[in-house]
């Protein structure tokens, strides 16, 4: 691939669509401004802008070239200012292939190349290449790829470990994702904004009509709306994780998924900083978890709580088998977890319930008839505090550490000593009186930023044990 190449000519259409989307308000302003003078001027202005964007898209495509030469990917682009970018193979962390609906229409893919210094955007993006070219480029840039072997020998090779999600599990993942809360918030915000544009008389008529239906009909309509949002959440998860497949290929984890937007994500094993699983409040009673990983670098927030999803949903008892097949070094050990002392419970209760308690006091004083609402929130907060206390624990096995904690979701993470960038032990005056301490572990996370894990109110002896383990003072 040492010769210069251009992107697929369909890039012109992609660039045009993106430009129109970015300049949509400019089109609207130009049209509205000129339509008062003469509608012909307004139409001509819009046509002129479109022609200008088509020309700019063509020039942009014409001036963009790429090639692989030696150990570098070389990009040249820019219309007025010519830019050259050289990316060494040794710096490349991952190469992802993505297909949205337009890509699939033209049978193309988008190649995103990430390095250790990648920020919010990928280090380099080739927006429109054929699938064959994308695979060739991916193979060419991966330093572990050697010369291609005959097809007969490839067929005899051992198939890589692979796990695929079933349709039943995919539906279950959508039903228990908890996305309905987000959708309800979005729907509420959209409805409140719509009220500004709806005529007052129409709004009043609709309100009178709803009240006239009676409480039962209104309750059924509200239930129907919630059910619709729940089904929409299921559909969203299914579109995102359709045909989710994860495989271990040589020194990489390769994930493919998506229906409308197909993705092929490559994660080098050396970039994995920690592996674990999340149990949300809906899935935990049924024994289901989401398996996640923390990846160093990367430009996109690809998963659960901004972590990379290794598998959307599985039974908790299946995690050991899953990790044994794909990441055996991160398989949890059977050793007993060290829990918090009983004297730590009050700190968790105070942190969880102090704000709801203050709100309850204000409501009791000002609006006593609505006191039941903060009372329910207070009780739920106390329950959450108890769960946070019970779920906090740690386990040391050789050079591997397992920590477990809960904010709202229960999180269990396994990480190795060499991946921990910093260790902090904190004590305030109350902690010192009761021989307690809080520890914080830091690893490299998304976009090169730190990812922090806390276990609060550990027994001081346990905190010192962790400090000794981190500093190699342990026996």
Automatic annotation (TrEMBL):
Keywords: Membrane, Transmembrane, Transmembrane helix. It comes from the Bacteria. InterPro entries: UCP026631, YdbS-like_PH. The chain crosses the membrane at residues 12-33, 39-59, 170-191, 206-232, 348-366, 372-389. Residues 61-127, 242-324, 390-470 form the YdbS-like PH domain. The keyword Ribosomal protein does not apply. This is PH domain-containing protein. It comes from Ornithinibacillus hominis.
